[in-house]
UniProtKB/TrEMBL annotation:
<dbReference type="InterPro" id="IPR006176">
    <property type="entry name" value="3-OHacyl-CoA_DH_NAD-bd"/>
</dbReference>
<keyword id="KW-0560">Oxidoreductase</keyword>
<keyword id="KW-1133">Transmembrane helix</keyword>
<feature type="transmembrane region" description="Helical">
    <location>
        <begin position="12"/>
        <end position="31"/>
    </location>
</feature>
<dbReference type="InterPro" id="IPR036291">
    <property type="entry name" value="NAD(P)-bd_dom_sf"/>
</dbReference>
<dbReference type="Pfam" id="PF02737">
    <property type="entry name" value="3HCDH_N"/>
</dbReference>
<comment type="similarity">
    <text>Belongs to the 3-hydroxyacyl-CoA dehydrogenase family.</text>
</comment>
<feature type="domain" description="3-hydroxyacyl-CoA dehydrogenase NAD binding">
    <location>
        <begin position="14"/>
        <end position="191"/>
    </location>
</feature>
<feature type="domain" description="3-hydroxyacyl-CoA dehydrogenase C-terminal">
    <location>
        <begin position="317"/>
        <end position="394"/>
    </location>
</feature>
<protein>
    <submittedName>
        <fullName>3-hydroxybutyryl-CoA dehydrogenase</fullName>
        <ecNumber>1.1.1.157</ecNumber>
    </submittedName>
</protein>
<dbReference type="GO" id="GO:0008691">
    <property type="term" value="F:3-hydroxybutyryl-CoA dehydrogenase activity"/>
</dbReference>
<keyword id="KW-0472">Membrane</keyword>
<comment type="pathway">
    <text>Lipid metabolism; butanoate metabolism.</text>
</comment>
<dbReference type="InterPro" id="IPR006108">
    <property type="entry name" value="3HC_DH_C"/>
</dbReference>
<dbReference type="Pfam" id="PF00725">
    <property type="entry name" value="3HCDH"/>
</dbReference>
<keyword id="KW-0812">Transmembrane</keyword>
<dbReference type="InterPro" id="IPR013328">
    <property type="entry name" value="6PGD_dom2"/>
</dbReference>
């Protein structure tokens, strides 16, 4: 059987299991690039929902001039839909996109191990679960890998490629080659909660919630400082409302379960809002109130502080974010280039190592040391890499050399 990276639009087959929003989008992405796709669901009703998602998504592309009507029919014609898992028997790549339940995924991968060809790549699109645990359900963990697409998959170019301690170099190389044939930008990392983008983004958002709940500054001061002074596209509290407070809370729970870093424990206010059903835009109330997609002037859940420290923003939030990025590189979890690419493409945020260069390692280290001294919080301890960069004879040259090596 030909490898998919050898014949990207030819005889190789891709199976996508689970045709919800993400799975249907992934199937569309492969079919758009000329691959033959087998979309698999567990029952007829779910299959019809998947078919409807594919039809609506491609119809929107036609309406926007991104796809010709004839091209839409050709694309849909390359996707065969069914409920029989044995259809993976001649597929070179299997992408799993079922619900985020570890028991469900491990049971599925045990079946894929039995049904898929020995040389097939088995990929999971999980956004939060342990890929190592999923791979352990198979007799071929070296061929199991994470491919975390971002929503909506047909539009977002970024894909996080997550290898476990068992994943082979060949599997990583083939996965990168495949993703490039479908015009995606892969970045690599190890198997830790949150991967690159969510680990940095959600930790930063959680810190913003803590500042707000503790009376450091008002919600408007926090959000406006990150937009006006830091150049972020949206303030952290408004972004949490857009993402969904329950979604961020679930990621933080997973991160805290793994790291036991108290900074990864959901801020009490975040937990209270989720418990109260204030989930953000989708529920009409979060940190702000909403009427449709419009922000109302509803008072926030915390009263404005009597003595605001807003003048210390955005540095207070940015320093911790940059320290986290340095810690990732220090542990060989991800490269500066992959981290920068992930945050720019995945979040439209400034590249962390560009920001580190703008501030200068010595300035960031001084700010992080002050934060650590004020809080005595172990998670605020400056990363060793940040200390080494700041101690170099020429910190900017040392930082440039680090980024070149990546």
């Amino acid at each position: 059987m030909a490898h998919i990276d050898e014949h990207p639009a030819g005889s190789a087959l891709v199976a996508v299991i689970g045709l919800g929003t993400m799975g249907a989008g992934i199937a569309e992405v492969f079919a758009r690039s000329g691959y033959r796709v087998r979309g698999i669901e567990n029952d007829a009703a779910a299959l019809e929902r998947g078919r409807s998602l594919l039809q609506k998504s491609t119809a929107r592309a036609v309406a926007r001039g991104k796809l010709e009507a004839e091209g839409q029919q050709q694309l849909l014609g390359r996707i065969d839909l069914g409920t029989d898992l044995s259809a993976v028997a001649d597929c070179s790549l299997v992408v799993e996109a079922v619900s985020e339940r570890l028991d469900l995924k491990t049971a599925l991968f045990a079946e894929l191990d039995r049904l898929a060809p020995p040389e097939a790549l088995l990929a999971t699109n999980t956004s939060s679960l342990s890929i190592t645990a999923i791979a352990a359900a198979t007799a071929r963990p070296e061929r199991v890998i994470g491919v975390h697409f971002f929503n909506p998959a047909p539009v977002q170019t970024l894909v996080e490629v997550i290898r476990t301690v068992s994943t082979s170099d060949d599997t990583v190389e083939r996965t990168y080659a495949i993703l490039r044939t479908i015009q995606k930008t892969p970045i690599g990392c190890g198997d830790r909660a949150g991967f690159v983008v969510n680990a940095l983004l959600i930790a930063y958002l959680n810190r913003a919630v803590r500042l707000y709940q503790d009376g450091f500054a008002s919600r408007e001061e926090i959000d406006q400082s990150m937009v006006d002074l830091a150049g972020y596209p949206m303030g952290p509290l408004a972004l949490l409302d857009l993402i969904g407070l329950d979604v961020a809370h679930a990621v933080l729970v997973r991160m805290y379960d793994e790291t036991r870093d108290r900074l990864h424990a959901p801020a009490p206010l975040l937990t209270q809002l989720v418990t109260a059903g204030r989930l953000g835009r989708k529920s009409g109330r979060g940190f702000y109130g909403y009427s449709g997609t419009d922000v109302t002037d509803e008072p926030g859940p915390v009263k404005p502080p009597p003595a605001s420290r807003a003048a210390e923003l955005p540095d207070t939030l940015v320093m911790g974010y940059l320290n986290d990025a340095c810690a990732m590189v220090q542990s060989n979890y991800a490269t500066p280039d992959d981290i920068d690419t992930g945050m720019v493409q995945g979040c439209r945020m400034p590249a962390p190592f560009d920001v580190l260069a703008q501030y200068g390692p010595a300035t960031v280290l001084a700010g992080q040391r002050q934060l650590f001294a004020e809080t005595a919080e172990p998670g605020h301890r400056p990363a060793l890499l940040l200390e080494r960069l700041a101690a170099a004879d020429d910190p900017q040259a040392a930082l440039a050399a680090l980024r070149t090596r990546s």
